[in-house]
Amino acid sequence: MLKIKNVSKTFYKGTINEKKALVDINFELKDGDFVTVIGGNGAGKSTLQNVISGLYAVDSGIIEIDGTNITNLPEYKRAKYIGRVFQDPMIGTASNMQIEENLALADKRGEKRTFKWMLNRDKKIFFKEKVASLGLGLEDRMESKVGLLSGGQRQALTLLMATIKKPDLLLLDEHTAALDPRTAKKVLTLTEEIVGDNNITTIMITHNMKDAIQYGNRLIMMDAGKIIYDVSGDEKKKLTIEMLLKKFETVEDKISDRMILS
Predict the structure, then answer these.
(1) Is residue 255 pLDDT above 80, yes or no?
(2) pLDDT tens digits, residue range 111-159?
C-alpha cells in the first residue's frame, strides 16, 4: 500500500543550521498494516509523516501509495489517499461549524466541489449512525458547534472524519498526547477498532513505549533521520518495554523524559 524509496529531506541546507531530518529512508507497508513509530525528539518521525502527506517536498526519493507515485503531488491532491489526525485536537475540526457539518466536509474529501446540498436526510442519518458508533453520546448533539466539545470528543470526531471515507493511508501524529490518560485510552481503543474493522493501513507516531508495543502489527524505531529498528509479527508480540529500552542504549541521549515517564 505504501512504498518509500530512498527518501531524504534536509532543512536549511548549506547553512549553519543544516538538519538532516530523513536520510535515505526505505520501507514498505502492506494493505492493512498498522505500524507504530517511536523515537526521541528530532528522530524524524513527524518529518516522515509530513513528506508522505505532502506538507514537505522531499529532496530525493519516491513515495508511492497503492502503486501511484505521489512524490510530486501537492498536499491537497494527496487528500484523496490520506487521512490524518494531529496531536492538537483543535486542528482537525472547524470549531464554528456543527458536528454534522464537519462530517459533511470530511465526506467530500478528495472530491470535486459542486453547487448542491452537502447535508440531506440520508446523510444526516448516516452521520448520526457513525457518531453513535463512537459511544460518546454525541449522536444527540449533531447540530452542536464542535468548539463546545471537549478535547477528547474533538479528537474522536477528528478520527472519525479522517476515516469516514476509507483512506488508503491513515497518519496519526501523537494523536492522544494532549489528552488525559483515561481519554487517551478511549481514543486509542476507538483507533484500534476503526483501523481493524476497516483494514486501514496506518502509521501511528507515539512517545509511549507501552502503546507502541501494544498497538499494531509492526514497530519502527527512528533516530537521526534513519530507521534503526523494524520489528513485526511474533517478534513484536514478544517485545517488552525493557527490551525496547535496550534498543535505545546506543542513542541514550536521545531518550526524552516524556518517553521514560510514559
Answers:
(1) no
(2) 777 666 678 888 999 999 999 988 888 999 999 999 999 999 999 999 9
Cα distance between residue 19 and residue 185, in whole Å: 34
**Side chain identity at 105, as an amino acid letter?**
L
Q: Which residues contact 47 (CB under 8 A, 6 or more apart)?
A: 9, 21, 22, 56, 225
2-11/60-65 β-pairing? antiparallel
DSSP string computed for 152-215: HHHHHHHHHHHHSS--SEEEEESTTTTS-HHHHHHHHHHHHHHHHHHT-EEEEE-S-HHHHHHS
> Can you tell me the mean pLDDT for 210-235?
93
Q: Are 59 and 104 in contact (CB under 8 A)?
A: no
Cell 503531488, residue located: 73
Neighbours of 210 (CB within 10 A): 12
